[in-house]
UniProtKB/TrEMBL annotation, chain A:
GO terms for biological process: organic phosphonate catabolic process. InterPro entries: PhnJ. This is Alpha-D-ribose 1-methylphosphonate 5-phosphate C-P lyase. The lineage of its organism: Bacteria, Pseudomonadati, Pseudomonadota, Alphaproteobacteria, Rhodobacterales. It holds the Pfam family PhnJ. Signal peptide: none annotated. Catalyzes the breakage of the C-P bond in alpha-D-ribose 1-methylphosphonate 5-phosphate (PRPn) forming alpha-D-ribose. Keywords: 4Fe-4S, Iron, Iron-sulfur, Lyase, Metal-binding, S-adenosyl-L-methionine.
From TrEMBL, chain B:
It comes from the Bacteria. Residues 2-224 form the ABC transporter domain. This is Phosphonate C-P lyase system protein PhnL. One of its GO terms (molecular function) is lyase activity. Keywords: ATP-binding, Lyase, Nucleotide-binding. NCBIfam families: CP_lyasePhnL (TIGR02324). InterPro entries: AAA+_ATPase, ABC_transporter-like_ATP-bd, ABC_transporter-like_CS, CP_lyase_PhnL, P-loop_NTPase. It comes from Marivivens niveibacter. Belongs to the ABC transporter superfamily.
From TrEMBL, chain C:
One of its GO terms (biological process) is organic phosphonate catabolic process. NCBIfam families: CP_lyasePhnK. GO terms for molecular function: ATP binding; ATP hydrolysis activity; lyase activity. This is Phosphonate C-P lyase system protein PhnK. InterPro entries: AAA+_ATPase, ABC_transporter-like_ATP-bd, ABC_transporter-like_CS, P-loop_NTPase, PhnK. CDD domains: ABC_NikE_OppD_transporters (cd03257). It comes from the Bacteria. Residues 5-250 form the ABC transporter domain. Pfam families: ABC_tran. PROSITE patterns: ABC_TRANSPORTER_1 (PS00211), ABC_TRANSPORTER_2 (PS50893). Keywords: ATP-binding, Lyase, Nucleotide-binding.
Amino acid sequence: MTHDTEYNFAYLDEQTKRMIRRAILKGLAVPGYQVPFASREMPMPYGWGTGGVQVSAAVLMPQDTFKVIDQGADDTTNAVSIRSFFQRTAGVRTTTATSDASVIQTRHRIPEERLTEDQILVYQVPIPEPLRFLEPRESETRKMHSLEEYGLMHVKLYEDISRHGHIATSYAYPVKVEERYVMDPSPIPKFDNPKLGNMPAIQLFGAGREQRIYALPPYTSVISLDFEDHPFEASKADHPCGLCGAIDSYLDEVITDDQGGRLFVCSDTDYCENRRNAGHKGKDAA
Amino acid sequence: MIELKNVSKTFTLHNQSSAVIEVINDVSFSVAAGECVALTGASGAGKSTLMRMIYGNYLTQAGSICIGDVNVVQAEPREVIALRREVLGYVSQFLRVVPRVPTLDVVADPLRALGVPSDDAQARAQDLLTQLNIPQRLWSLSPTTFSGGEQQRVNIARGFAHAYPAMLLDEPTASLDATNREVVLSLIEEAKARGCAIIGIFHDESARDRVCNREIDVSAFTPGAAA
Amino acid sequence: MIPLLSVQGISKYYGAHIGCKDVSFDLYPGEVMGIVGESGSGKSTLLNCLAGHLPPDEGQVVFDTRTDGPRDTVTMSEPERRMLGRTDWAFVHQHARDGLRMGVSAGGNVGERLMAVGERNYGDIRGKATDWLERVEIDASRVDDRPITFSGGMQQRLQIARNLVTGPRLVFMDEPTGGLDVSVQARLLDLIRGLVRDMGLSAIMVTHDLAVVRLLADRLMVMKSGRVVEAGLTDQVLDDPQHAYSQLLVSSVLQV
């Protein structure tokens, strides 16, 4: 697809990008704090990553290499359409290789491969407010953040244990940033939570419908909330990847037939492919 | 123990053309420890009113009412509360309790308020209820369902649970049968013997003659009667 | 002894309208004070000013804090005031749903204040929550049920447990027995009385029910048009009211 020069670079006008960059800088200066921004209408529906797309548009430069993953995969509809959107409006190079990308927009995963200081990870966020399900009033949740009143967040975990015997929250697991702000890491599996902390790459979070941007600068302390007697555990399906045999990656369960047949495979398609190219083989590999 | 000096009271009825009624005028008397004084006078003479003034239940317009070293007329509410808890007991003709509370707890309540351990307070309550012939099967029930005579006896048991240094008794023997009347009179005699200063209203003349050291005719201080 | 709460000249205006005007009193440890008056007399406005829910326009509310002694809660910072609201103060709303999280289990409701002050051991929190449910006569087996499945009286008792779990010293109550059946009211009154005594609580209770104040309150303030018209011992104010309005109020109660 060729670069469509009828559009301004990366679709948004320069003033809008400035406004978003200001929000990003503020977010980086106050890690975990939700910065309001004037979210624009984008040529895609809410819930498809309008927040992430606006953040990506504001940080992309012509020399960048862009990668988009959806639930770890480069080849799903959402990933393909956002990738082609920026190919067309910004003319940037795109890739599926994590290590080649300088900007990675993601929905619900962190790549398995450790990111570097030269990379930016942009998350799509549906609901940025971690306290929202327990306290519906925005005025009140803002006050709770400003006064660091986070007892309510533990009420949610308490409810989990009382109902399920363990902390059953398995994605969007709340974290505390630099011992200050409680933050929703977007719906990534809690398996990815340990990767949030001390990451060399910049992490940016954009919520389009909710009009919020927040950020984690490189090497930020990020702690998953828990109880002394119910500590946080980063869990995943207890299997090796059926295709590449990896035992350290987050797995998707794929139903293969109507007889209960199933297959566990890496959710990070690039990671799985690299391993297979290097000769690793799982038990279900053809 | 109890000393009244130049005590007067008026009622102002704001909602009845602000009528001012003088009920007590210039009362002075005192009651020593171990003494029992009866208030007498015709019905409506102001016996109960005077007693309620001493308890702080009615406001006094002039004079002083000292119980020990507390002047009820000028005391802060919390001082009157402490006085009622520790020093001044009152057996009224009416039992006022939280519904649903068992009789035993109602009687033990004044002791619990003083910080007496629950077991000791209950033991004292059981003892008094037994003396006053309240059947044990009623102890766990609320006294609100009892007959008038039973309620009166529960009220007396509650009033005598703590050994107050001063007591006010409003018709303690009314509506009691001979046996229970005898129990109450001996409770009064015991209280006197340990040095309690008592002011009482007794319509029962023989009871009055038996426990009271002297009488004060309230009619003498009632403006209406003087006219 | 210094007062636990010393209120000096509290006024609140709603534009030209007076919410409450120049209210002063001292409340000592262990005292229960009732505030009565008809609807619109300013008693709820006053309670909300005292509890830090409404900023008063004039006056001081000096509370004897555990760590720093007497402090004016009107001028202290909001985080400090809210911290008091989670630790030394409690607020019991008339409607339990205003004071409870209806979507959270009974145990979570009681445990919230513990977690808010930093408790992080699930077993301990649950243990204390269960203990408090029993103290307010809710079966421990209901600890994981949501209050939406509770009766009105149980919800009100749960609200009380949720408030008292951190061992506050001052409880604000806004018509705590309003809207409940008479038999349920009696049980609640008995419970509140027992807790006040056992925990040595001080309380300020707004109500229009004179029978309730007679049973629970040591002291009484009568309010009319935003002003306190009479104050004193509860039984003295009820049995020998001095002010025209108090006399009217007392004489208007239906006898049963």
